[in-house]
Amino acid sequence: MKNTLALHTLLLSLVLWSCGGESSTPTSPTTPTTPTTPTTPVATTIQLNLVEGDYTLPGLNLTARFTAVVKSQTGATMSGASVTWTSSDASVATVSSDGLVTSVAVGTATITASSGSANAAAGMTVAIPEFTVMVGESATSSISVNQEITLPIKVDMSKAAGVDIASLQVKVTWDASLLSFVSYTKGPFGTATTNATGTSTGTFIANLYDGTGQKASFNALILKLKGVAAGPVTVEVEVTTAGTELGKSVLDKVKVRNHGVTVSN
């Protein structure tokens, strides 16, 4: 009986020890993490790309095309962003809703792409190429009777971007009672076939040809005339044919500048 009681006492002590040991602090529940709200993309910059044509349109009814890449404040591309296109001068160049620019008249215009508060712009120039056939380095000169004057027939190509000259026929005329023909020298432009039979009456014709075409300014030929009698006289030049290396006529792009000579005693 005593042994049984002792056993019960021992078991009770073990139970009390296991329940009454060092207590631990309860763990606080974990606070749920608040999900991060995605940043709303805002159009911040626009990158303009010229994908067709050039910034200078050499004629009317020609086109160039831009694309616009809209980027957000993080630098990410906003592929679905709406873009509005405008021209600063629609009388010079128009722009469609998809960035197609069309030349209307000679001048300059700024093409702008906008998306929200972001925008980007590019300048466009409409220029009709032209070249000028000039008599002399300047517009006027003065000589005395019996004095000779050298007049280059110069072709100025400085405004003829994109145009080459391969064939050219020029006719130079003057008043034979005031100036007489002395001689001519061919310039560096290809070959020349001349007709000097009319020089006694004040007419000189030259046909020039250069198979490779010429894009830079050049002297077609050089005329030497002499004063015969006192008075004002105009040495005029007329271009009757002008063609490119491919045989296309560019006569509509030709301008001329005559030369006034004052002959004095």
Q: What's the gist of this structure?
A:
By secondary structure, the chain is mostly beta strands. The protein has 1 helix and 19 strands. The strands form 4 sheets. Strands 10-19-17-12-15-14 form a 6-stranded mixed sheet, with no helix packed on it. A 5-stranded mixed sheet has the order 13-16-11-9-18, with no helix packed on it. A 4-stranded antiparallel sheet has the order 1-3-6-5, with no helix packed on it.
Q: What does this entry look like structurally?
A:
With 265 residues, the chain is mainly beta. The protein has two domains: 45-126, Immunoglobulin-like (Sandwich); 131-264, Immunoglobulin-like, CATH 2.60.40. Helices cover 7% and strands 51% of the residues. It has one helix and 19 strands. The protein has one helix at 2-19, and strands spanning 45-52, 56-57, 63-71, 84-87, 93-95, 100-103, 107-115, 118-126, 131-135, 140-144, 148-156, 165-173, 179-186, 191-195, 203-214, 218-227, 231-243, 254-257, 259-264. It has a six-stranded mixed beta sheet with strand order 10-19-17-12-15-14, with no helix packed on it. Strands 13-16-11-9-18 form a five-stranded mixed beta sheet, with no helix packed on it. It is rod-shaped and about 125 Å long.
